[in-house]
Backbone:
């Protein structure tokens, strides 16, 4: 084999390997603009999301530079450890997949691969977007913590410890772990979101100011730590697993509701007892 033939053979092999390797798609600029569930006590209504266990729960609102309509899209966050410096905030990102480019490539959890983990997070994100209920922050929080705990198993424990804020409600923590378990089992069986886009950060954009007028220092938000990683998902594909959605235990009645039932039973008993007394009294006359 001549030297030229060897070179051509090597190039051909490299070409085949590159063709087989999943690549990240073109860069986009994402901008966090607000939160789907805003703190009702926030006068600006978008500046502060709703905190549960000292974390702002999703979904979150972003715009995508590849969308000419500048529509705000609801997304979920899979990364609890990285912070965003302000609001609004823009950063460079790529659309990736669990096999190449995603932030948690190579991660494992209880024997599950990164591919299963991302598909589980996609199922939870799709459910969170589709079943979003503005009047039920506890359930929304459980979904958020379930996603976070897939990639950071200490997320729920840290929230329960409440080092920096209000402790995570034990019921929310239990539901989050339940949801995570259901999602991992379903994803391991082949269930997945109909559509899942992973936005992995690549860098901060300089010259930004937040709503307070403060300049955002990109030196603290470099590369993959320029932002959290976000998931855009919709629909659930059971893929033969029989999975149709997540099931959570029915919450017990509130103390006031229970008290109302007890009082009703008490007054009903008194009424019936009084009628019986009056009837007996009439019969004796």
Residues:
């Amino acid at each position: 084999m001549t030297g030229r033939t060897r070179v051509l053979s090597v190039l051909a092999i490299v070409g085949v390997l590159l063709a087989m390797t999943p690549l990240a798609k073109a860069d986009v600029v994402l901008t966090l603009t607000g939160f789907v569930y805003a703190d009702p006590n926030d006068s600006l209504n978008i500046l502060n999301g709703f905190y549960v266990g000292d974390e702002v729960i999703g979904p979150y609102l972003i715009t995508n530079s590849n969308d000419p309509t500048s529509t705000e899209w609801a997304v979920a966050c899979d990364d609890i450890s990285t912070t965003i410096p302000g609001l609004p905030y823009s950063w460079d990102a790529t659309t990736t997949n669990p096999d190449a480019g995603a932030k948690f490539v190579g991660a494992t959890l209880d024997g599950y691969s990164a591919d299963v983990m991302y598909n589980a997070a996609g199922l939870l994100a799709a459910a969170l977007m589709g079943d979003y209920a503005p009047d039920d922050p506890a359930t929304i929080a459980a979904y958020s913590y379930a996603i976070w705990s897939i990639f950071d198993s200490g997320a729920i424990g840290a929230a329960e410890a409440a080092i920096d804020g209000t402790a995570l409600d034990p019921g929310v923590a239990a539901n989050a772990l339940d949801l995570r378990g259901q999602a991992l089992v379903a994803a391991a069986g082949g269930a997945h979101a109909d559509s899942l886009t992973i936005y992995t950060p690549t860098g901060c954009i300089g010259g930004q100011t937040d709503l307070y007028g403060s300049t955002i220092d990109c030196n603290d938000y470099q590369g993959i730590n320029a932002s959290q990683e976000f998931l855009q998902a919709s629909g659930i594909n059971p893929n033969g697993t029989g999975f149709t959605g997540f099931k959570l235990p029915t919450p017990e009645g509130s103390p006031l509701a229970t008290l109302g039932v007890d009082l009703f039973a008490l007054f009903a008993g008194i009424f019936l007892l009084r009628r019986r007394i009056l009837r007996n009294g009439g019969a004796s006359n």
